[in-house]
């Protein structure tokens, strides 16, 4: 009986040992699967994400149904506007900013709704330096000479020292909306600053984009001290580093709102196309 007990104990230990080994192997396999899944999920998507369309935005569609939190899943740089035009939208390195009409710059709550946005996960394809830029037009001309082709979409991060920067905002609206961007933009609030550093983020769309988006260059800005931001109107800068990401996939999502459902595409408006 004693020998039988010993054999039984050894058998139990062997069974438990095998069971523990199988359990550990399963845990290791699960961790590997989880690790691979995490790597796959963190790969950057090479897609230009576009919420709503420019033509709708021009025609007084000033309320959207996507949140700031959702927009963060579509890219790590972005520009656009929040619902009711309550602030210019800027995203840099995954952080969102709200440049209010009084010049205040805030980090919005993830629940804040967005009416219009362009976004992308920035994956640098090229870069170059510019010692001095006298104005916005000079920058556009220089970038146009550097791009591989103007038939693709591009995302930009443009960092440097700014001798002067002029940014625009928009006045917050209340429904019913009576004025479109053709009236609001010429009367927008203006913000100016001298001798500081910051980053412009934005996009280039080919001319064939039509009224879906802004053709040519569209840039927003945030200062390094996060106290000055908005839509880029004019500037003078030194020691700029221009980073660009060429994008060949485009996705736009239309709002599921009454405003978009009932909009009439009566007015056309584009920024200066270059």
Automatic annotation (TrEMBL):
InterPro entries: Acetolactate_a_deCO2ase. Its EC number is 4.1.1.5. One of its GO terms (molecular function) is acetolactate decarboxylase activity. Coiled coil: none annotated. Gene3D superfamilies: Hypothetical protein, similar to alpha- acetolactate decarboxylase, domain 2. It is an enzyme of class 4 (lyase). The keyword Lyase applies. Pfam families: AAL_decarboxy. One of its GO terms (biological process) is acetoin biosynthetic process. Keywords: Acetoin biosynthesis, Decarboxylase, Lyase. It catalyses: (2S)-2-acetolactate + H(+) = (R)-acetoin + CO2. Pathway: Polyol metabolism; (R,R)-butane-2,3-diol biosynthesis; (R,R)-butane-2,3-diol from pyruvate: step 2/3. PANTHER family: ALPHA-ACETOLACTATE DECARBOXYLASE. Belongs to the alpha-acetolactate decarboxylase family. This is Alpha-acetolactate decarboxylase.
């Amino acid at each position: 009986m004693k020998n039988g007990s010993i054999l039984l104990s050894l058998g139990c230990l062997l069974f438990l040992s095998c069971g523990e080994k199988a359990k550990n192997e399963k845990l290791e396999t699960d961790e590997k699967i989880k690790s691979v899944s995490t790597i796959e999920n963190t790969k950057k998507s090479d897609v230009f994400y576009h919420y709503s369309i420019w033509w709708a935005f021009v025609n007084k569609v000033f309320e959207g149904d996507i949140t700031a939190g959702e927009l963060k899943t579509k890219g790590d740089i972005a520009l656009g506007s929040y619902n009711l035009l309550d602030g210019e939208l800027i995203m840099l390195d995954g952080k969102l900013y709200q440049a209010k009409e009084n010049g205040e710059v805030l980090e919005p709550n993830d629940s804040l709704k967005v009416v219009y946005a362009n976004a992308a996960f920035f994956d640098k394809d090229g870069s170059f330096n510019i010692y001095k830029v006298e104005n916005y037009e000079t920058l556009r001309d220089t970038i146009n000479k550097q791009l591989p082709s103007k038939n693709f979409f591009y995302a930009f991060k443009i960092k440097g020292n700014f001798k002067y920067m002029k940014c625009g905002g928009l006045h917050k609206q209340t429904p019913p909306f009576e004025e479109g961007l053709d009236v609001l933009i010429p009367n927008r609030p203006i913000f100016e600053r001298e001798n500081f550093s910051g980053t412009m983020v934005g996009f280039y769309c080919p001319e064939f984009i039509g009224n879906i988006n802004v053709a040519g260059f569209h840039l927003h800005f945030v200062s390094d001290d996060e106290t000055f931001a908005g839509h880029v109107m004019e500037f003078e800068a030194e020691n700029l580093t221009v980073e660009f990401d060429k994008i060949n996939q485009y996705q736009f999502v239309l709002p599921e709102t009454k405003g978009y459902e009932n909009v009439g595409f009566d007015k056309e408006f584009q920024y200066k196309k270059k």
